[in-house]
Write a structure and sequence with these properties.
By secondary structure, the chain is mostly beta strands. Helix content is about 10%, strand content about 40%. The strands form three sheets. It has a six-stranded mixed beta barrel with strand order 1-3-2-6-5-4. The radius of gyration is 28 Å and the shape is elongated.
């Protein structure tokens, strides 16, 4: 179980002061939970976020209560890339949720390696519906299945648990190999010298 200790945040305290103390401001909310501002330790959050991503259940520990959530949105510092704020979505472990799972592309395509094809990744995450306990952290897409030019991998080709149901059609293409188009240069036709009339210069 992934846990994060948290405290209720005084909204009068400036976020800059919170971050200077090694914490980050955050908020949790849900259908039956009102929006609640909280504070969490930045280092602890980074460890949990690295493991959980946005599809694994995290338990917030606050005032003796356990609150099951998903990491819903993380704001990053544009310079340091460090997390500076996080949203948590409160969930019910006994009810299915709909979330987007990142795709991890592995392997190497023969069509790209030896036939000169171009790999086209149509999507980088897949929306699925499942109980929180069944949510994968990522979904693997094996590119070695792309052996020929024009071949593709669709949702129906993925090896995922029966407990995880994609919301899109099984025919939806995730990645494909297209034929590399050659650049055609504009070639000016050579002049036919035999058709050029040469005027004689006068004396």
């Amino acid at each position: 179980t992934l846990e994060l200790k948290t405290t209720k945040r005084d909204t009068k305290t400036k976020n800059k002061i919170i971050r200077e103390g090694g914490d980050i401001p955050a908020v949790f909310y849900g259908q039956k939970s009102k929006s609640t501002p909280i504070t969490i330790n930045q280092a602890d959050f980074k460890k949990v976020w690295k493991t959980a991503g946005e599809s694994s259940v995290v338990t917030l520990l606050m005032d003796g209560k356990d609150i099951d959530v998903l990491i819903h949105d993380v704001a990053l510092n544009p310079v340091t890339d460090e997390p500076i704020h996080s949203d948590f979505l409160v969930i019910d472990k006994n009810k299915k949720v709909t979330v987007k799972i990142p795709l991890e592309f592995i392997g190497e395509s023969n069509a790209v390696k030896t036939l000169g094809g171009v790999l086209v990744k149509v999507v980088h995450e897949l929306e699925v519906e499942a109980f929180p306990k069944d949510l994968p952290q990522k979904i693997t897409v094996d590119l070695s299945a792309l052996e020929n030019l024009g071949s593709h991998i669709s949702i129906g080709d993925l090896k995922i648990s029966d407990d995880v149901a994609p919301t899109a059609s099984h025919n939806e293409i995730l990645v494909s190999v297209s034929v590399q188009k050659e650049e055609i240069e504009d070639v000016k036709p050579e002049a036919d010298l035999s058709e050029i009339e040469v005027e004689k210069k006068g004396k």
